[in-house]
Amino acid sequence: MTVPGSKSETTGKPAVSGKKTHTSHAIAVIGNPNTGKSTLFNALAGMNAQVGNYPGVTVEKKVGRFRFQGREIQLIDLPGTYSLSPRTADEMVSVRVLLGTQKKAEPIDGVICIVDATNLDRNLYLFSQILDLGIPAILVLNMWDEVLKRDIAIDVQELENRLGVKVVPTSARKGIGLDKLKSEIVSLVENCSKADFIPPKLFPDSFREAKEQLQEEVEKRTGLPLPHFLAERLLLDVHGETEREVLKEDQSLNSFIANLRTELASKDCPIPAIEPRVRYQWVKQTLDGLVTKPEQVLKTKKDTLDQWLTHRFWGPVFFAAIMFLMFQAIYTWAGPLMDAIESLQEMSADFVMDLMAPGALRSLIIDGLIGGVGSVVVFLPQIAILFLFIAILEDCGYMSRAAYIMDRLMTRVGLSGKSFVPLMSSYACAIPGIMATRTIEDRKDRFVTILVAPLMSCSARLPVYLLMINAFIPNDSLFGTWIKTQAIVLFIFYILGAVVAVPIAWLLKKTWFKGEPAPFVMELPSFKLPSIRVVFDRVYDRSKAFVMRAGTLIFLTTVVVWAAGYFPGDHQKLDQVDAQLEGGTIEEGSPAEDQLQEQRRVLAASLLNESFLGRAGHAIEPVVRPLGWDWRIGVGVLASFPAREVIVGTLGTIYSLGGDVDEEDPQLRDRLKSARHSNGEPVFNIPVALSVMVFFALCAQCGATLMVMRRETNSWKWPIFSFTYMTTLAYLGALLTYQIGMLFIKG
Amino acid sequence: MSCGLSVIPVECLQRGERGTIVDISGDERTVHRLNEMGICCGCKITLKRNDSPILVNIDGRDLLLRCGQAAMILVSVGSTTQLI
């Protein structure tokens, strides 16, 4: 049963017995947006979900597993959707997974459909489509706690009878009903087969006849059988994805389908209006007399809160306040944790120094590994705090309020509020941000959002900002003691990208992507307390991804930079001086030690100058000189084009190799402060630091983002365009910053 | 359009006023999409905020609609008017 290359084979987990299909069962998880689907998924599968991509499309493949009563169940999370009618290739993935025809997905044994129990009449629309698939299903009435709180009565037993499937009330947030759901899933895979699930007859006879005709015709012409569900979709979805795929096989089917549709319309079966008509009718019949709701309370506390948070004036004020609080928190909460990581870094450097004699390997470990990777990892606490804030805002429902507030602003540049959430997530990382643009139905809006998303200040820029700000911006207090200058500078850099994005988006909408603001409908989920589990899960996932990058890509780059800075060159003399310094024969603070230290500095600097890295650096120096940079910054920036956070590691390695090191204070920021040009002038001052920061704020230094952009736009044109415009902007921005900054210093 | 009821586009409702959707006009794909999201004839709809985009409540769910699209949604206002 297992498809080659499927998840079960690639997980590396040994199967309990030889035949995996007998011990592990795959269950798909589907549901409307805002029904608590991901919370339920995490509650069932725990933290160890594996995330990947389906080939050729941008849909995230998320697989989790749990064991219950000796059975291993694999859960396959599908994107939240209102309906199973595929309009795009991405939406087709869910249908394929359910039909068992998706590449890189195991055939499923059943599906659980999660609905908002307080809104059954709307949510059962999707469930009626699931029943049409004819696969074993369980209906999960999530948010059961809300049902109880609002005194809604639902006759679950009778609902089960009418639907012919198991109905399980749960509350994922409160952990209610999870074991019952697990045991129902196990008994579903044990006892049910597809034969038990016969789709209800919803559509009139004329429609069914037309569908059968279509199935025959397609099989006759293409030689491929068309499953019942896809035949239905092919007939119902005008210009849908099913139509596109079938017409790709045989263009002449177009007129055949069109004829069937016209014929149906004349039999009081208009396409596509017939679908909502029959489905909602079915929902109404199914629920008839089962749900009693008390008269709705007209104004709840949540409504009042909403009135304020989406208020024309107070809404934006509150939004700005939250953002500011976030940057303050990044500064004040992370301090102790960062100190701990830094001292760990120092301790391990000392440990290695004591253990090994001076030489190439020791230099690799101390300068390349500890100096490079360590200087990136140190920012983990601050990045985790940023992720924490974003996760809380997402989970409590505030993000969509922010989208509402921002819609007014976004329409001015020609976008809509829908672009806001992708852009906001780009503050964590442009990759999920660009992927989140899939919720924007209008193609032009989507492309413009993708093109400006990398300008949002992602978490990888944070280390660069923090390094420069910590080292060169005085930590004064403004307006009393609470607000710090450093936090304000960080705040400015965080909004810089967004500010620059405004004219760019406007220009793009005026030129390539002309058009009216897209029509849009968006649901505002009701406010809720953020779930600790969901928030923790997201912070953990994203932090892990950051550390993994530091551990692989950044590590490799720093090693390459280290090697280029270490070779070629005869390090014998330097090693001798080091050995003498550490030998313990020289008194600390004596003139002899000073002399040796000076000798060390000169030797190290000339070795670095002569290295491959030094030569390359001097070659590009004329280009970066107008920005106020020395060759070392230039090389660092060049090396950080694949991933911008690499700069911190490479600077760490370069300055460590260069011998600008006071051994007692091996932190990178102090190395930067003490860095000197050959004429003895400090390399860094405030304009140089700002110029570096502006460059990083605006430049497209992220290979992964460009790759995702190519995948999402399906063309190399847009990533190349982004790279060019952003790099040009970055250079000009840095140039202006430095030149204007210097006028202030000199003036 | 029965007597005594007036049929107006949804954004012409007063803030807090409730009506019943009687017609959704527009291209069939958009209407299909709106239907799938639970915006269909017979739904009770309350206007909560009349900036653009308008904020409406349909059967207990808050939805944002841009006026261009909302103009296609016609509602009848009868005696069920209530203020929130």
Automatic annotation (TrEMBL), chain A:
Residues 24-191 form the FeoB-type G domain. Pfam families: FeoB_C, FeoB_N, Gate. GTP binds at residues 31-38, 56-60, 77-80, 142-145. Its main location: membrane. Keywords: Cell inner membrane, Cell membrane, GTP-binding, Ion transport, Iron, Iron transport, Magnesium, Membrane, Metal-binding, Nucleotide-binding, Transmembrane, Transmembrane helix, Transport. It is a multi-pass membrane protein. It comes from the Bacteria. Residues 1-24 are annotated as: Disordered. Belongs to the TRAFAC class TrmE-Era-EngA-EngB-Septin-like GTPase superfamily. FeoB GTPase (TC 9.A.8) family. Probable transporter of a GTP-driven Fe(2+) uptake system. This is Ferrous iron transport protein B. It comes from Rubinisphaera italica. The lineage of its organism: Bacteria, Pseudomonadati, Planctomycetota, Planctomycetia, Planctomycetales. The gene is feoB.
From TrEMBL, chain B:
The keyword Iron applies. SMART domains: FeoA. GO terms for molecular function: transition metal ion binding. It comes from Rubinisphaera italica. This is FeoA domain protein. Residues 8-77 form the Ferrous iron transporter FeoA-like domain. Keywords: Iron. The keyword Glycosyltransferase does not apply. InterPro entries: Fe-transptr_FeoA-like, FeoA_core_dom, Transcriptional_repressor_C.
